Amino acid sequence: MLKPVKFKTQHGGARREGLLDFSASLNPYLPEWIDEMVERAKTLSNRYLYWEGLEEELSSIVGEPLTVTAGITEALYLVGILAMKGKRKVIIPEHTYGEYERIAKIFGAEIIKTPNDPRTMAEKVDKGSIIFFCNPNNPDGKFYGVKDLKPLIQAVEDENSLLVLDEAFIDFVKDAESPESENIVKLRTFTKSYGLPGIRVGYVVGFEEAFKSVRMPWSIGSLGYAFLEFVIADEFEHLKRTMPLIWEEKERVERELNVKSDANFFIKYVGDAKTTVEKLVEKRILVRDCSSFGLPGHIRFSIRKKEENDKLIEALKHLDK
Questions:
Q1: What's the distance, Cα to Cα, between the start and end of the chain in Å?
Q2: Radius of gyration of the chain (CA)
Q3: Disulfide check for 156: which of 37, 145, 161, 235 has CB 3.0–4.6 Å away?
Q4: Which tens digits make up the pLDDT trace of 203-243?
């Protein structure tokens, strides 16, 4: 009666412990209040939680109305529920986050693949299209400013379409700017910038009444609720402290390995990603094989602390010899 749906999507991150994990693109500096947060979560775990009040406080800090979700992943499924009724046309760039295609397939959409370029994508937009755009893009870290996105946004507005702008890594981009339009849904998460992928908390900017009407009740749980409390109390001070440290290391890694990115991760051509990943695992280092992105010759790796980055730099230089 029920048959599984087959996908190419494969997520990164270590499946086993004991490896120095560069495959997940996370802030390597954890919040100082993490232990207090866990203790607070214990006191909340014996009751159902409603976070409307926290949502309002977070909205005040962010400066925009928003909808709290269990990370960007829940938000993507909500986009499917709200926007993919019927055979909708979904435009997805090549070499980007695979979950967009997964969601589109689940909801029976017509998928159109294009180069990852706003001008080229704009040419494919027609009435009622849904466009997914990751900014900065995963896996290459390319960030497009408001001026660069203007052709795509104009096409979306002209055709009354919807641009789903995934800004999961925008906190890692220096002097980042985010466009404004009534036809844009912005997806953001705390998973990456706080280095806590196990805590599923993010938010959506735009169409808040629609998203709140279909989100799953109690989806973030007691740990997510406690996390929101501490993030609000902290007012993003943790990000202000740690992002300059990441940017400093990023510039050093760029020089050492001749790579470039606008985000906190890089892709590097190695010829055979699968073999390179295996060789690095022998050295207890994990990087991401980009084959699932359609880039079988590339690996992706993130910025970690200096002493950890030194180990990766040495290992990659040794492989090049």
A1: 55
A2: 20
A3: 161
A4: 999 999 999 999 988 899 999 999 999 999 999 999 999 99
